[in-house]
User: Which sequence fits this backbone?
């Protein structure tokens, strides 16, 4: 990716630009809603309000712990550690349109269940290229957490 993430040292250190990393992981806008057994809608990481997208960026490896990373300058950005998980993954090229992503997720889910894996949550979409990359050269992945 080409755009940097600008962070603030929060008074202790100067601001720092962090090169964007790949993949960019998104939930929402085409991602699978997590089923919730309630009558009112509940928003979770896997179930977004209509039109809302959550993006995850991986920090460079020099930050071994979340608390070592510089503080973001935008309050909407949250840095947190995510525990290690296992995923079933399907890779595809082209534009990651909602219909394509849903089809890939459905196919992957069916294959994982056929092979005896337990699905542990909704799928996420990982994109590896900047938006100006020609569609045939783009790399995308649909990832489903499994046990």
Assistant:
């Amino acid at each position: 990716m080409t755009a940097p993430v600008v962070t603030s040292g929060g008074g202790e250190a100067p601001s720092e630009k962090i090169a964007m990393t790949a993949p960019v992981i998104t939930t929402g806008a085409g991602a699978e809603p997590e089923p919730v057994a309630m009558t009112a809608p509940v928003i979770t990481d896997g179930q977004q309000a209509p039109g809302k997208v959550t993006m995850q960026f991986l920090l460079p490896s020099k930050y071994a712990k979340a608390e070592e990373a510089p503080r973001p300058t935008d309050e909407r950005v949250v840095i947190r550690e995510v525990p290690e998980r296992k995923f079933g993954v399907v890779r595809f090229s082209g534009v990651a349109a909602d219909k394509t992503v849903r089809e890939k997720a459905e196919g992957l889910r069916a294959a994982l269940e056929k092979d005896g894996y337990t699905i542990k949550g909704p799928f996420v979409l990982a994109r590896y290229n900047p938006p100006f990359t020609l569609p045939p050269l783009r790399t995308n992945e649909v990832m489903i957490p499994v046990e």
About this structure: The first strand starts at residue 4 and ends at 8. Strands lie at 4-8, 16-19, 24-28, 53-57, 71-72, 86-93, 124-127, 139-146.
